[in-house]
Design goal:
The protein has two domains: about 160 residues, Rossmann fold; about 70 residues. The chain has ten helices and eight strands. α1 crosses α4. The strands form two sheets. Strands 5-4-1-6-7-8 form a six-stranded parallel β-sheet, sandwiched between helices. It is an alpha/beta fold and about 240 residues long.
């Protein structure tokens, strides 16, 4: 039975017009580089943002922790300024989906490569409430290792009393989301085409499903739970 769904934030459940990755690109390029947004999204999407910066720099063979940390601090300041004026919206049907899942007794978790301060800012601007619209929020700063390591999903499972990863679905808009779910042992890992990565990029990560709208998750959950009930009845 599916008892928990873990959703990525930006590009999956949150529409912030790629402001984070645009800001990553701006902060990096101020140091004399000329990366495109597509390059930043390809190697940085879904990652903790210092690691995303390091991954972008690695595209040109640059491995310099001091430079990466300098860029990261500049990025944080720029992002804070951007969020003061940036309009933040939920992705289409996100709240409706959350409430439908919760009505079915399924726990709803948001997880993200953002730090907690940034993630809470997004949740607050949209108006979601932990304990009401979602059951938990897990961020990059809450765990020791980040995507594609499974720490955030395992942390959420422990928080909400889910002992078996086979009861968990992971949904995200980047290949690293799919990798994270697989590494956690989630029974179903779903790519969604509303964010950072294309259908082809998501497909390369070999998810069980690729969807174009969040509500497409509901029949997947229904099928999985009907199958689980049938197996239990026949046991």
């Amino acid at each position: 039975m599916i008892t928990m769904v873990v959703f990525d934030m930006a590009g999956t459940t949150v529409d912030e017009n790629n402001v984070v990755y645009k800001t990553v690109r701006e902060a990096i390029n101020e140091e004399g580089f000329d990366f495109s947004l597509e390059q930043v999204l390809e190697v940085g999407a879904g990652k903790e943002k210092l690691q995303a910066i390091k991954s972008v720099l690695a595209l040109v063979g640059k491995q310099d922790d001091n430079l990466a940390n300098k860029i990261f601090e500049n990025f944080r300041q720029k992002l804070e300024n951007a969020y003061r004026t940036q309009d933040i919206f939920e992705q289409s049907n996100a709240t409706r989906l959350f409430h439908t899942l919760k009505q079915q007794g399924i726990k709803v978790v948001l997880n993200t490569g953002y730090n907690r301060e940034t993630a809470e800012t997004l949740v607050e601007k949209i108006g979601w409430k932990i304990g009401d619209d979602i059951d938990a929020l897990v961020t990059a700063s809450d765990v020791g290792e980040n995507r594609p390591k499974p720490d955030m999903i395992l942390y959420a499972m422990k928080q909400l009393g889910v002992s078996d990863a086979k009861e968990v679905i992971k949904v995200g808009d980047s290949s690293i989301d799919v990798e994270e779910g697989k590494n956690a042992g989630c029974s179903i890992n779903i790519g969604i085409t509303t964010g950072a990565h294309t259908y082809e990029q998501l497909k390369a990560a070999d998810p069980e499903y690729i969807i174009n709208d969040l509500l497409e998750l509901l029949p997947i959950v229904k099928t999985a739970n009907e199958s689980a009930r049938s197996e239990k009845a026949g046991a």
